[in-house]
């Protein structure tokens, strides 16, 4: 038989944040970013980012919620400028316009969602992950 796995498998990933206003958050992620909502409960929504990656928000009104300044939610896309134009049309708060970060090898811009969370839209300028890692077609996104 096959050797045992080094650890149990992980099939999906969900990042959760908290919000005071789930409806406003839902409009931003569903309508402005165009993400597909895949779960809805009384105070929680989950949107699909890729086939196996998801973003969730839960509404909490009795907890102090301050977006962390040490966290960035990054979306990888081959069309950074297209996203920038789209989000400007929706009057999204842009923190940093598109620019090439030569040290990091990425072309990126940053914005804030309605809750104040920092989002980055980026494209890798070189193969990512490196060539020794399996990946899909080279388009600036992860496999």
Structure summarized in a few sentences:
By secondary structure, the chain is of the alpha/beta class.
Strand proportion: 35-45%
**Could you give a short account of the major beta sheet?**
4 strands, mixed
Globally, the shape reads globular
Helicity range: 10-25%
Rounded radius of gyration (Å): 17 Å
- SSE pattern: EHEEEEHEEE
Spatial sequence of strands, sheet with the most strands: 1-4-3-2
Low-pLDDT segments, ≥5 res: none
**Overall pLDDT metric:** 87
The counted number of beta strands is 8
Structural class: alpha/beta
Q: End-to-end distance, in Å?
A: 28 Å
Separate helix tally? 2
Structural key phrases:
four-stranded mixed beta sheet; single chain; alpha/beta; 143 residues
Could you characterize what this model shows?
- With 143 residues, this protein is of the alpha/beta class.
- It is 15% helix and 36% strand.
- The protein is built from 2 helices and 8 strands, in the order βαββββαβββ.
- The chain has a 4-stranded mixed β-sheet, with helices on one face.
- The two termini are 28 Å apart.
- The mean pLDDT is 87.
